[in-house]
Write a structure and sequence with these properties.
Structural class: mainly beta
Order of helices and strands: EEEEEEEEEEEEEEEEEEEEEEEEE
Largest sheet: 5 strands, mixed
Helix content: under 10%
Number of helices: 0
CATH class of the domain at 37-138: Mainly Beta
CATH superfamily of the domain at 37-138: ntegrin, alpha v. Chain A, domain 4
Radius of gyration: 38 Å
Strand content: over 45%
CATH topology of the domain at 37-138: Immunoglobulin-like
Number of strands: 25
């Protein structure tokens, strides 16, 4: 915006007095209204094993113009519904949307976004033709090796569970107690096995006893909990009665949380010697263990 001022001074003939007058004019320049919106898309996983799995697509939308936008809609040509926090964005604001689906084969998705300003719809991308694309490989892993700025092995390679060139470590807990056992004093080991894979092949496997400081939780048959610790042999020993017990090892001791249910019983029980009695008589019977 700018303001100009113009003044004029005049004197009367043969007079010393004069007249002085000024006036102002303001010119207002309005900024050009320019709606703008951009879209970026990512995936939770770009490579799935043979058989496929779930993948979540993430869409980031930002208002890059100088006006507020309304009725914002994100579309994906192969995933729906796309869930967003809201459908309005002020100048400079952004939001993140998502969509989850199950893939069974390699797929390329195209995402587009529309928004409105003063009754006009503005669009990023053309549905099914152009927009923000993401490819998720199923059964193949894409690897890129650069030498001197040039790509020597670009393209899909057979997926072996672990991408080529990566070192992956897995952990697993195991016990040597059966799911069903008889009551009494029982000792059993809890072991943690750590496997290391390189280029999809097992390179090392180490099995160790779970330490006594692992805060192992034993849920008794009456529902109460006690903390159990391993002895010097890496075993947990307890006097089990009849019932159902649960062993729980917290997450972080050896990978994810581990839980195992143990049923202690003498086997099949049945009633013998049950005879008819009158209401005024005692009922006598024998429970026999097979």
């Amino acid at each position: 915006n700018t303001t100009n001022e113009a003044c004029v001074y005049a004197t009367l003939q043969n007079e010393n007095a004069g007249i002085f007058r000024c006036t102002k004019a303001e010119v207002i320049v309005s900024a050009t209204l320019a709606p703008g919106i951009i879209l970026s898309k990512t995936a939770s996983n770009y490579s799935l094993p043979a058989g496929g799995g779930n993948v979540t697509y993430y869409y980031t939308i930002k208002n890059t113009g100088n006006v507020n936008l309304s009725n914002i809609t994100v579309s994906d040509n192969k995933c729906s519904p796309v869930i967003c926090q809201n459908n309005n964005l002020s100048v400079g604001d952004s939001m993140r949307c998502n969509c989850t689906k199950t893939l069974t084969s390699t797929e390329t998705n195209i995402a587009t976004v529309t928004a409105m300003f003063e009754g006009t719809t503005y669009r990023f991308g053309t549905p099914g033709i152009s927009g923000e694309t993401v490819t998720v490989n199923v059964g193949t892993a894409v690897t890129t090796v650069s030498t001197g700025g040039s790509c020597t092995t670009c393209g899909p390679q057979q997926y072996q569970g672990i991408p080529v060139g990566e070192v992956t470590t897995t952990q697993q807990i195991s016990t040597n107690i059966s799911d069903t056992t008889t009551p009494g004093s029982r000792c059993f080991k809890i072991e943690c096995t750590t496997n290391t894979y390189q280029d999809g092949k097992l390179t090392t496997g180490i099995t160790k006893n779970v330490p006594s400081a692992a805060n192992i939780l034993l849920t008794l048959s009456d529902g109460s909990n006690i903390n159990a610790s391993t002895n010097a042999n890496g075993e947990i020993c307890y006097q089990f009665g009849c019932g159902i017990y649960t062993i729980t090892i917290p997450k972080g001791v050896c990978g994810n949380e581990y839980s195992k249910t143990i049923t202690t019983t003498y086997g099949n029980l049945h009633i013998e010697g049950l005879s008819e009695v009158k209401t005024t008589q005692d009922l006598i019977y024998l429970i026999k263990d097979d």
